[in-house]
Every structure is written in C-alpha cells, then in structure tokens.
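Renewal narrative, Specific Aim 1. Our central claim is that a sequence can be written position by position from structural information alone. The example that follows is taken directly from our test logs and has not been curated for this report. It begins with the structure tokens describing the chain, in the order in which they were read.
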C-alpha cells in the first residue's frame, strides 16, 4: 500500500465529461486519487471464469440423459423459446436441429 496520490490517468478530475454524460475514471474508480485502500495495482486478481452453459453441464456426460434427449437446446421439442421480462414478450422459433442437414437432425 502507498500513500494516496492524485490519479495519473484522470489527473484528479475523477473522469471525463462527454456532452451530458460523465464517464468515471476506470483507474481510480471515480475518486480522483489512488493509494491506501484504493490501490489498483493490488487488485490484479483474475475474474472468475464464466459459468458453464446449459449444454456444457456435466449431466450430459450421463449416457442415459444424453440418449433420452436428442438435442441439448430444445430437449426434443423442436422449438426453442425466449422470454423478455422487460417487454413482457415470449418468442419461439424452430430449433436449429430441425433444419435439413443439421448434424443433430432426427429426420
């Protein structure tokens, strides 16, 4: 840890103004200074890896589960759905496995 000093990136301005927007400095976090508890050099931890997608879940390693559901996206229903909470809209579309020539096509 070091003594607090003026941020070398924003020079103590805490960010940058672009028209009506104020973008805070990413280096100091909008404080205008670094050091002490606000030391960016000490926070160099790697972010956690992203969680696995549903199709990469370990349940698909089970041969009985993999045989029961021919497609990991639609689980055999041949339709995929998406719900948008903000728009309160649900949309469905044919699964890619239903298209002719698809590698997982059951036809």
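The sequence written for that structure reads:
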């Amino acid at each position: 840890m070091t003594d607090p000093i003026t941020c070398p990136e924003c020079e103590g301005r805490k960010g940058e103004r672009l028209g009506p927007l104020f973008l805070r400095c990413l280096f100091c976090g909008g404080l205008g200074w670094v050091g002490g508890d606000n030391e960016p050099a000490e926070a160099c931890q790697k972010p956690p890896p992203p969680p696995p997608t549903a199709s990469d879940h370990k349940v698909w390693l089970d041969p009985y589960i993999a045989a029961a559901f021919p497609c990991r996206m639609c689980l055999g229903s041949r339709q995929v759905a998406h719900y948008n909470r903000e728009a309160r809209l649900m949309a469905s579309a044919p699964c890619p496995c239903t298209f002719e020539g698809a590698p997982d096509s059951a036809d």
